[in-house]
Amino acid sequence: MNKTLASLMTAACLLLLPLSGQALEYGKQKVVYHLNGDDPKVLMGAMRNAQNHINSVGAENVEIVVGMHGGGIALLKKAVTDENFRAAIDNLKMQNVKFLVCNNTLKAQKLDYTKDLYDVKADDIVPSGVAHLSYLQQQGFTYIKP
User: Fold this and answer.
1) Do residues 44 and 85 make contact, with C-beta atoms less than 8 angstroms apart?
2) How large a percentage of the chain has pLDDT more than 90?
3) What's the CA gap between 143 and 83, in Å, rounded?
4) At what angle do helices 40-57 and 83-93 cross, to 10 degrees?
5) CA pair distance 77, 37, nearest whole angstrom
6) Percent with pLDDT over 70 in the chain
7) 126: part of which helix (H) or strand (E)?
8) What is the separation of C-alpha 82 from the centre of its chain, rounded to a whole number of angstroms?
9) 3-class secondary structure, 66
10) Is 97 helix (H, G, I), strand (E, B) or coil?
11) Whole-model pTM?
12) Can you list the domains of the chain with their CATH numbers?
């Protein structure tokens, strides 16, 4: 390797060194986390992903929606009896994370959202989970599938 190339590579490394270990400026973000499976590890992992996202970007810089349909509604079913799920949901809701539920799933599973799901209000229900995911993406939300 010639001396000029070695010098350029060393200079580039020295310029990048101050960036290592520093947080990036991510800017404002809009994200939808899509849940449609009922695996408790995946569901709790999604809650950790959302919290890590907030920790990295800042609650003031991110709008997060958790969209649930099919098996993903298990998150709110489990939270009725599981304190860990309740705590994770409550913590995220305090940081303005929205949890949206598919009405088609409620009908198909014959669920009463006021009794069978944790902390769901009428405003949290969308007609179709998959249609709403598409709508949110059209509104500029980034799609994430944990």
Assistant:
1) yes
2) 82
3) 28
4) 30
5) 12
6) 84
7) strand 125-126
8) 20
9) strand
10) coil
11) 0.83
12) 28-144 (3.40.1260.10)
